[in-house]
Amino acid sequence: MNNELSRAWLDRFKRHAQSLCESERLAFEQQISQVDWAQVAVLVQEHVLQTADTESYFDLSTLKPADFEPLPSSPSEHASWAAASEMGEEMLRRGEVGVVIVAGGQGSRLGFDGPKGTYPIGAISGFGLFYFHARKILAISRRYGVRVPLLVMTSPENEEATRIYFEEHGFFGLDPAQVRFFRQGQMPAVDRITGEPLFSAPDRLALSPDGHGGCLYAMARVDQSDGLSSLEWVEAMGVKTLFYYQVDNPMVHVADPAFLGLHARGQAEVSFKVVAKNAPQEKVGVVCTRADGRKLVIEYSDLPQDLALARNKSGQLAYRAGSIAVHIFQSEFLRRLASGNTRLPFHKALKKVPYCDFSGGEMVSPSEPNAVKFEAFIFDTLPMAERSVIVEADRTAEFEPLKNAEGPDSPDTVRAAMSLAAAKVLIEAGFTVELDSAGRPVQVIELDPVLADQPEVIRQKFPRGIGSGPFILIRE
């Protein structure tokens, strides 16, 4: 059935291509050649044409809260984390660690026309998200005497603009040879009733990103420019461990040595950072444990209400390990998944997708969800790992994503979190910073991440202190 369906689509596409002019035909044929139609046929059969619910591929009734490494509070726990941090620092010195930033999205939800990574989050400088991420990697490279490789996942929509942004800003001080861009895959949107692929124009399919889980396969895809996949590229540089995160969170402790050490000490194939959920309804995936002992992430919308509200003996939420999309992967584990028969499951999402109506030759903008999009999630690697480690992070110090134009997770909240982090660095360096009743700086402070661990340089630049003005910018 699935083979028949995919063959029927391809036959129809070939006939349709003959009605296009040569340039349109060539572009259309290239587009359809990049889609695994046999896989799409399977997904359509499972998620559209079948009436049974195939989204739940595990028994929710067997779930238990996942164990995780809590933030240290006792002397022995602090000593354990310090020892792990030393292990992580040795991994960095040996050049075994690379960084992956997932940055395929646009800033449209923020009212910004451009790649999300170029959004001007710097409160004073207007520097983009990429600046703060890249400068952290530069700081790590200098601190440990290595060139930490950076992989940046783009999308067909923003790849060129992302490359140009890095080039125009001199790669933010990084050596261009330590940065590699790779493109996220795409999947066709299909009609939610018939499963037929939709067209965004007479000569173009309606394609959409295949989810952050597509990062796994995109990293394993060979680049024609040098004949290497991104995984092969970093492994050729000596990398064995990849630190993964999303571009919208400038608070990430990039290549955190303690996290790296805890991952290595647990001989993990994959590790996740989590924060304690601040409310049962908080919209973050929750790390749980299956009946077979393996861990997995349940989307907040899929977690049963009784489990979301459950509390332990200490009064804390029992299912509180909220995933923040900060992970560590062994490159060998990723290669094994990418080349094996076991693929990450695709999840369906009902969306409103404008499409070309061939009968009338016009574009249709639906008022209700009319299409199914297929996305793979990177957190579905977790139950595929033989060994995994879950580590708690300090929410106020490490998690403030930029998702909305206003309100929570907006430029205002992100800039406030960045300013508070900068204030803590200055206070530790011996500066006096005026704080309000909530412990937040009354000034807006922006700090170059390269200077975050160089208090002596900051003191040399500002021997008389930072003043009391409303703004201060510290840059290298």
Notes on the protein architecture:
This protein has 476 residues and is an alpha/beta fold. The chain contains 14 helices and 23 strands. The protein has helices at 2-17, 22-33, 37-49, 75-93, 129-144, 159-168, 214-220, 230-236, 257-265, 305-309, 331-339, 395-398, 411-428, 455-461; strands at residues 64-65, 97-102, 150-154, 179-183, 186-188, 190-191, 199-201, 204-205, 207-209, 222-223, 228-229, 241-246, 270-276, 286-289, 295-298, 321-330, 346-351, 355-357, 362-364, 371-376, 388-392, 444-447, 471-474. A hairpin with a 2-residue loop joins strand 7 and strand 8 (204-205). It is globular. It starts with a helix and ends with a strand. The model has no long low-confidence stretch (mean pLDDT 93).
Helix content: 25-40%
Determine the strand fraction and express it as a percent band: 15-25%
Mean pLDDT: 93
Which term fits the overall shape? globular
β-strand number: 23
Distance between the termini: 62 Å
- The helix-and-strand class reads alpha/beta
Strand order of the largest sheet: 4-3-2-12-16-13-21
Largest sheet, strands/sense/barrel: 7 strands, mixed
Low-confidence stretches: none
If helices are DSSP runs of H or I spanning 4 or more residues, what is the number of helices?
Answer: 14
Radius of gyration: 24 Å
